[in-house]
User: Which sequence fits this backbone?
């Protein structure tokens, strides 16, 4: 039997070598299959074009709404129950197709809606979450600043000053996804009165709020990141998130979304692996497919090893989340480990393509570039490692 005629394991072809998806129930698998079909039919065909033009997939908002996968059951009527594992695998599938789309979706559904769900009052959740679940209002999350990135827990430069029933916000934010078109932007600022971090929902059209698109990005170009300027932006007390009274409350949101980035990293790795494997089977050198060469098979097996190890960690993370036992340090470790292994994996994938790996016509180039943003956002590897180190030793090494 020739090399080309040997039986191929479908799970290996798709990068799910240990068949993680088999852990889902039949109903959950049908939901995942529906999402996967949507990604193949709606997202994949335009992903590279939007990436090249640096445009977000706003034309897909109606189709996303019809999927009915945004939010949790308490957010709006008709939202289906989904466990953390299914949500994680949905995130994985999105990033497997297009990390830019996954981030565009995650900023709205994870950071934007998550901030209101975790830190808003009952009235605020009822006011904003139903519309956000239906995508009639799109959200963004503004924490990082031009001069404050990893040090956000130590002190934001953006200020909030209370004047009667109004708060006045001043400062700048940077790298804020979706902010150029968002209807609601959750802005985090330190209260001049008590020095604590508080959250404010700034609605589109508020005077003094400007969002300028950041140009020249080499990663996640399909996400509109903005530089925000807040110049005496007046926000009513009703728009202050009532359960956000310190950075510890902000961290509750980040704990969940950092776990989501771990799933994004796995999806990005799978996308790179699948592209590299497909190329290796078809690309011929020295009279035979390069997939038959030992060095190429070694790279593919390393990629699968990284993907599988990260999936195992993420599956356990999802189980802890389902039991409401996931700690900040565990989420930080998942983000740290999975994005680090992703960086290795996409590099090996690009290597299999040789010079073709830097051409956008081959998807490996997009995954290779996008991995750099996933590696950095939601806390760098170094900062997440210090969260884990603090949990392991009892000592804080943060400056």
Assistant:
């Amino acid at each position: 039997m020739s090399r080309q005629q040997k039986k191929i394991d479908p799970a290996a072809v798709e990068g799910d070598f240990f068949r993680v998806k088999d852990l889902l129930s039949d109903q959950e698998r049908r939901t995942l299959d529906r999402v996967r079909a949507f990604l193949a039919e709606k997202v994949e065909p335009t992903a590279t074009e939007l990436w090249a033009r640096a445009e977000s997939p706003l034309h897909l908002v109606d189709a996303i709404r019809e999927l009915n996968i945004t939010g949790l059951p308490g957010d709006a009527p008709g939202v289906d129950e989904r466990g953390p594992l299914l949500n994680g695998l949905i995130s994985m599938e999105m990033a497997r197709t297009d990390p830019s789309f996954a981030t565009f979706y995650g900023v709205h559904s994870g950071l934007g809606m998550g901030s209101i769900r975790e830190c808003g009052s009952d009235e605020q959740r009822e006011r904003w979450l139903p519309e956000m679940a239906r995508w009639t209002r799109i959200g963004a999350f503004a924490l990082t600043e031009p001069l404050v990135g990893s040090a956000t827990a130590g002190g934001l430069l953006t200020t909030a000053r209370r004047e009667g029933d109004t708060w006045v916000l001043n400062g700048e934010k940077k790298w804020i996804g979706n902010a150029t078109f968002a209807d609601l932007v959750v802005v985090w600022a330190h209260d001049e009165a008590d020095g604590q971090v508080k959250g404010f929902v700034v609605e589109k059209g508020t005077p003094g709020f400007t969002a300028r698109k950041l140009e020249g990005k080499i990663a996640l170009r399909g996400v509109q990141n903005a530089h925000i300027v807040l110049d005496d932006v007046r926000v009513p007390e009703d728009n202050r998130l009532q359960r956000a009274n310190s950075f510890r409350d902000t961290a509750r949101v980040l704990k969940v979304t950092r776990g989501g980035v771990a799933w994004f990293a796995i999806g990005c790795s799978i996308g790179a692996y699948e592209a590299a494997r497909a190329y290796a089977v078809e690309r011929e050198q020295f009279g035979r497919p390069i997939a038959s060469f030992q060095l190429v098979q070694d790279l593919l097996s390393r990629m699968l090893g990284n993907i599988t190890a990260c999936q195992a960690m993420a599956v356990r993370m999802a189980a802890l989340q389902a039991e409401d036992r996931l700690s900040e340090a565990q989420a930080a470790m998942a983000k740290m480990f999975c994005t680090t292994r992703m960086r290795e994996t996409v590099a090996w994938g690009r290597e299999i393509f040789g010079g073709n790996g830097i051409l956008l016509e081959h998807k490996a180039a997009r995954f290779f570039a996008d991995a750099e943003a996933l590696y950095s956002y939601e806390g760098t590897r170094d900062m997440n490692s210090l969260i884990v180190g603090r949990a392991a030793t009892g000592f804080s090494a943060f400056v």
User: Anything to note?
Assistant: DSSP finds eleven helices and nine strands in the chain. The chain has a mean pLDDT of 94. The chain has three domains: 10-133, 139-246, 248-393.
